[in-house]
Design a protein that fits this description.
This protein is of the alpha/beta class and 241 residues long. It has two domains: 179 residues, Rossmann fold; 54 residues. The protein is built from seven helices and eleven strands. The protein has a seven-stranded mixed sheet with strand order 3-2-1-4-5-11-10, with helices on both faces. Strands 6-7-8-9 form a four-stranded antiparallel sheet. A hairpin with a 4-residue loop joins strand 8 and strand 9. Helix 1 crosses helix 4. The longest helix has 13 residues. It is globular. It starts with 5 loop residues before the first helix and ends with a strand.
Length: 241
Amino acid sequence: MEYRNAQIAEIYDLANPWSEDLDFYLSLAEARPGNILDLGCGTGTLCVAFAQRGHRVTGVDPAAAMLAVARSKAHAEQIEWVESSAQTYRSQRRFDLIVMTGHAFQILLSDADALAALETMRNHLKPDGRVAFETRNPRHGWAEEWAARPPLQRTLRDQQFTERLEIKSQEGEFVSFRTFYHFPHQTLTTSSTLRFPSREHVESLTACSGLVVSQVFGDWDAGPFDAASSREIIFMAQVAE
């Protein structure tokens, strides 16, 4: 809910610049122009990159403030922006490539929500299209790593602030935390819970949606997934035959 706040959306955009995961997703698009759907597009950084390459892009996000930031970017006018959750998005369009990036899959906290998002992908995918999304490997000690992270110093529109993360709880697949943004005259706070499902569970849900996992990578160089050492679980899927 906090990402409906305009200032939080700006901070999100600042804290998530172009990175190697976006290089990976950008590389999945064919050279010829195609139809691409970004579910949970956030502030639209990847959507804009796809559009710059001539693709017809739809960016979907439930937070209007995030879409407002996206619409302010160069080339944003070439993109269809839709305020919707991944679970409830509906369109007559069918897509060559559907992506869900930024670990957005992990905010789907129930099997019902995850399956609904996967069914959205299945129902909007062309017969020969591809789906790509990722989740963090639960075998990695994410809560411990984040708890040890020192505060970060950032600057937003000439205002310096400190970003600090505090782990609230860790129970089974779920990690809850708060993030504090300390400005000179105010503190903004977001509360988050993420789910860390296993590879096997995600593959089972994917199969239930009518998709089939075709490849699983463990890093953004498309290296093989290793359950003991990989930080990421990156899924490629397509329509089940």
